[in-house]
Specification:
Blueprint: E1 5-14, E2 17-27, E3 32-36, H1 43-50, E4 58-63, E5 69-72, H2 86-90, H3 98-107, H4 123-135, E6 141-145, H5 153-170, E7 173-177, H6 181-184, E8 190-194, E9 198-202, H7 204-208, H8 211-217, H9 221-233
Parallel strand pairs: 3-7, 3-8, 5-6, 6-7
Antiparallel strand pairs: 1-2, 1-4, 8-9
Helix pairs in contact: 3-4
């Protein structure tokens, strides 16, 4: 099975300053990969490069021909005085059918808000609308850049359960950047830890025990992993088989 994206020896700079170097990775169809790392470690810069918004200083990015990418940004600010419904927002810049709007919103877990005003949405609803917009492209790869920023812990966990369910139903790969270590370390097939380069990578349990990861984040994640798994197994959200020996999703 060919990779969706292959990155080789990539270096990136932002405002003339190198933010990432010597990055090589592949994204396989259907897998969930999470990038973690401290602020300024190059996480969001990599996502911008993958969608073509930041040119490489060095190295190559190869995308599978015809690759469809859905992108969910950190946040979207809507003018509170702008009369714009969710359905109308999803239909920009070109109109789409009501059925497609409702199907995308239902897939994102908010099927009942098509007629709500965008300015009235909560943070969690807004992010699910952005997810619905990304899903309209029927993506092979869904990219999320700290999509739960500003949400509380239950809201973030709920959003990531929705992402897991989307992956299972649609078969798309997911690449996400997040600071929600307690959630994403349990909700990923593979984790990449960035600090200007890839300092460690592997299944969540392997990365959580790596010296490079612990030097950046301490040793508390393992306990948080167990807590998340316990809460997740008793939730009423979509069923996911991720409580495996190596911490990976299947």
């Amino acid at each position: 099975m060919s990779a969706l994206i292959t990155v080789k020896d990539l270096a990136l700079a932002y405002h003339g300053r190198e933010v990432l170097r010597d990055v090589s990775l592949q994204l396989a169809p259907g897998e969930i990969v999470t990038i973690v790392g401290p602020n300024g470690s190059g996480k969001s810069s990599l996502l911008r490069a993958l969608i073509g918004a930041l040119p490489p200083v060095k190295g190559t990015i190869h995308r599978k021909p015809g690759l469809r990418v859905g992108y969910v940004p950190q946040k979207l600010v809507i003018d509170a005085t702008l009369p714009l419904t969710v359905a109308r927002f999803l239909g920009l810049p070109r109109r789409i059918t009501r059925a497609r709007v409702r199907a995308a919103l239902t897939e994102a877990g908010v099927g009942e808000i098509a007629d709500h005003q965008m300015a009235s949405l909560s943070g969690g609803q807004m992010q699910r609308v952005m997810l619905a917009r990304a899903l309209l492209a029927k993506p092979d790869l869904l990219i999320l850049d700290e999509a739960t920023q500003g949400l509380d812990q239950p809201g973030a966990a709920s959003f990531y359960r929705q992402i897991e369910a989307v992956r299972q139903r649609q078969g798309c790969a997911v690449l996400m950047v997040s600071h929600d270590l307690h959630v994403v370390m349990a909700a990923s097939d593979r984790v990449l830890c960035f600090n200007g380069h890839i300092c460690c990578e592997g299944t969540p349990d392997i990365v959580a025990s790596a010296p490079e990861y612990r030097a950046l984040f301490g040793t508390g994640t393992q306990g948080a992993l167990a807590l998340y798994r316990h809460e997740h197994s008793h939730s009423h959200g979509p069923e996911c088989n991720h409580d495996t020996a190596d911490g990976s999703l299947h």
